[in-house]
């Protein structure tokens, strides 16, 4: 019997498992506290104080909210498709977390005589992977909406699907312009380029702007939260969901927000680069310390972007559906096409 | 017809290219909300902070005692007559020998009740009182489960005895003095 044993690098597997656990935990905690942050930001914008009763500054509020959701009665409608009804929120949560695999969370660190990359999977088509997973995200909403066997839910699901398809086009076109300037699909390579040169937001301001708007739409956040428009569709796609299944939907929105902020920070704001136009290696700090500082820099950028998400949400009312489609098809797509052409001409002219 | 000069002409021009993307309006809105973000908050953290009362605020009543701890009220009934809501009832009794340290004059209120659900806190009882006996304070009736508990008897109304609880008496007197000072300010 000749079995060929694949050489499995056990420490590598362990390292990746720990890293995955860490990234998932961090995403969850950030998403949890994003709900607290959301309520605080909303309150401050409306001249209120926000949650401040549960613990110092109301910091235990997310725990109380989570506990409440767990304690609620779990209702599965009789006429629903039970399997898909459970699959919907699970898929929403899964796709929200999947994207974090290709984001470079920091530079390499040295530990136990090994060099560990703070990126779960350094695939050379990182951006394509992100795109694939993000467009899968709408399946969670669609499946859950359809399985509810409720007209309003279905309407919400249909809206979500058409909205995400429309905005993905503009998002893809704005990314093509970015890819033409960077010449790579790998996220870690993009960060390396930005570490030594300019941040991409300076080269691609219009591209970033379109990407930002499309990110709002992809995350189903106000002003693009038509899929759950309460005043027309009860709760939209999650009308029939209760307890932690509803919690998963709400939570996946916040995780999506965190992940898309991370992607924007990586693509346009230099990822874990600390100061633009400056070579940080001149400080002569150890590799691990630099990696930590880099991670903190990325984290701050993510938090600022999350704040922008919330700031926009509490400023703008929801669009009407025709306004949403007009904005997507008649404004964003033409602008991103023109911007792509301008970028191409610029690259050819300066070659 | 123009009534005031504050009316504004509504701009009905078709939106230009940038306005069709809603961007100028959105950026303007975001500027406004960011301004509000740093504004002073209007919330009052209730149990810890309370909203200051108006100087003429009229809350729950108290019945006064003099320095020796004798009740001022003589059950003359003027407050009950003045009361527009008919919230005050009382039973008068004659002071017996040996009760001089309890009641200031020969007649006193054996029972004195105010129905806080009927009371409209107008303060007319306070104005009617010739004996400096009834005053309104700055507290208001706490919530309760039964209607009966809103009928305040002498045990709820009379201020503490200076011999038994000098601290409480001083505090209650302070409230009364404050109220008198404010009333004087009003008339002056």
Structure, described:
The complex is a heterodimer of chains A (351) and B (188). With 351 residues, chain A is mainly α. Chain A has one domain. Helix content of chain A is 66%, strand content 2%. Chain A has 12 helices and 2 strands, in the order αααββααααααααα. In chain A, strands 1-2 form a two-stranded antiparallel sheet. In chain A, α1 (10-45) packs parallel to α11 (287-313), α2 (61-71) crosses α10 (243-268) and α3 (82-98) packs antiparallel against α4. Chain B is an alpha+beta fold. Chain B has a domain at 61-187: 2-Layer Sandwich (Alpha-Beta Plaits). Helix content of chain B is 29%, strand content 13%. Chain B is built from 6 helices and 5 strands, in the order ααβαββαββαα. The interface between A and B is medium-sized, with 18 and 17 residues.
Keywords:
heterodimer, A: 351 residues, 66% helix, globular, B: 188 residues, alpha+beta, Alpha-Beta Plaits, three-stranded antiparallel sheet, two-stranded antiparallel sheet, 6 helices, 29% helix
Strand content of chain A: under 5%
Proportion of residues in β-strands of chain B: 5-15%
Largest sheet of chain B: 3 strands, antiparallel
Poorly predicted segments of chain A = none
Mean pLDDT level of chain A: 84
SSE string of chain A = HHHEEHHHHHHHHH
Please name the CATH topology of the domain at 61-187 in chain B: Alpha-Beta Plaits
Multimeric status of the protein? heterodimer
Number of helical elements of chain A: 12
According to CATH, what is the class of the domain at 61-187 in chain B?
Alpha Beta
What is the N-to-C succession of helices and strands of chain B?
Answer: HHEHEEHEEHH
- Uncertain regions of chain B: pLDDT < 50 for 5+ in a row? none
Q: Number of DSSP helices of chain B?
A: 6
Query: What is the arithmetic mean of pLDDT of chain B?
Result: 86
Main sheet strand line-up of chain B: 2-3-5
Shape of chain B: elongated
The largest sheet of chain A has its strands arranged as 1-2
How widely separated are the two ends of chain B?
48 Å
Q: Which two chains form the greatest contact, residue counts included?
A: A-B, 18 and 17 residues
């Amino acid at each position: 019997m000749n079995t060929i044993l694949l050489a499995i690098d056990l420490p590598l597997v362990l390292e990746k498992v720990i890293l995955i656990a860490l990234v998932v935990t961090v995403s969850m905690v950030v998403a949890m506290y994003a709900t607290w942050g959301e309520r605080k930001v909303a309150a401050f914008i409306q001249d209120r104080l926000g949650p401040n009763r549960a613990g110092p500054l109301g910091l235990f509020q997310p725990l109380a909210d989570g506990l409440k959701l767990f304690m609620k009665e779990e209702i599965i409608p009789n006429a629903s498709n039970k399997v898909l009804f459970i699959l919907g929120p699970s898929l929403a949560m899964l796709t929200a977390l999947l994207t974090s695999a290709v984001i470079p969370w920091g530079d390499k660190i040295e530990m136990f005589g090994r060099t560990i990359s703070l990126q779960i999977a350094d695939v050379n088509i990182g951006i394509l992977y992100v795109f694939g997973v993000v467009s899968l995200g709408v399946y969670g909403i669609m499946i859950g909406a359809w399985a509810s066997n409720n007209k309003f839910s279905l309407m919400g699901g249909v809206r979500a699907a058409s909205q995400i398809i429309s905005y993905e086009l503009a998002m893809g076109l704005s990314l093509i312009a970015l890819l033409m300037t960077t010449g790579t699909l790998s996220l870690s390579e993009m960060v390396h380029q930005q570490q030594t040169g300019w941040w991409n937001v300076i080269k691609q301001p219009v591209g970033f702007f379109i990407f930002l708007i499309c990110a709002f739409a992809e995350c189903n956040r106000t002003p693009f939260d038509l899929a759950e428009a309460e005043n027309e569709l009860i709760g939209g796609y999650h009308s029939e969901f209760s307890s932690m299944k509803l919690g998963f939907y709400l939570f996946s929105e916040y995780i999506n927000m965190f992940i898309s902020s991370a992607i924007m920070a990586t693509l346009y704001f230099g990822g874990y680069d600390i100061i633009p136009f400056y070579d940080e290696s001149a400080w002569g700090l150890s590799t691990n310390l630099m990696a930590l500082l880099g991670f903190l820099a990325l984290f701050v950028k993510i938090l600022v972007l999350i704040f922008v998400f919330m700031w926009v949400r509490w400023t703008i009312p929801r669009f009407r559906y025709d306004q949403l489609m007009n904005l997507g098809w008649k404004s964003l797509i033409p602008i991103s096409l023109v911007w792509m052409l301008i970028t191409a001409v610029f690259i050819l002219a300066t070659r | 017809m123009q009534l005031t000069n504050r009316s504004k002409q509504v701009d009905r021009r078709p939106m230009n290219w940038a306005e069709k993307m809603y961007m100028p309006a959105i950026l303007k809105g975001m500027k406004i909300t960011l301004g509000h973000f740093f504004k002073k908050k209007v919330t009052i953290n209730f149990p810890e902070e309370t909203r200051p009362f108006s100087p003429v605020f009229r809350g729950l009543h108290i019945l006064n005692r003099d320095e020796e701890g004798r009740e001022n009220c003589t059950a003359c009934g003027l407050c009950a007559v003045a009361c527009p809501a008919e919230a005050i009832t009382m039973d008068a009794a004659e002071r017996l020998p040996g009760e001089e340290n309890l009641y200031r004059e020969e007649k006193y209120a054996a029972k004195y009740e105010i129905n806080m659900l009927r009371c409209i806190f107008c303060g007319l009882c306070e104005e009617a009182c010739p004996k400096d006996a009834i005053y309104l304070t700055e507290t208001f009736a706490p919530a309760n489960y039964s209607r009966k508990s809103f009928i305040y008897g002498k045990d709820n109304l009379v201020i503490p005895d200076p011999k038994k609880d000098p601290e409480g008496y001083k505090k209650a007197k302070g409230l009364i003095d404050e109220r008198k000072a404010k009333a004087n300010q009003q008339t002056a």
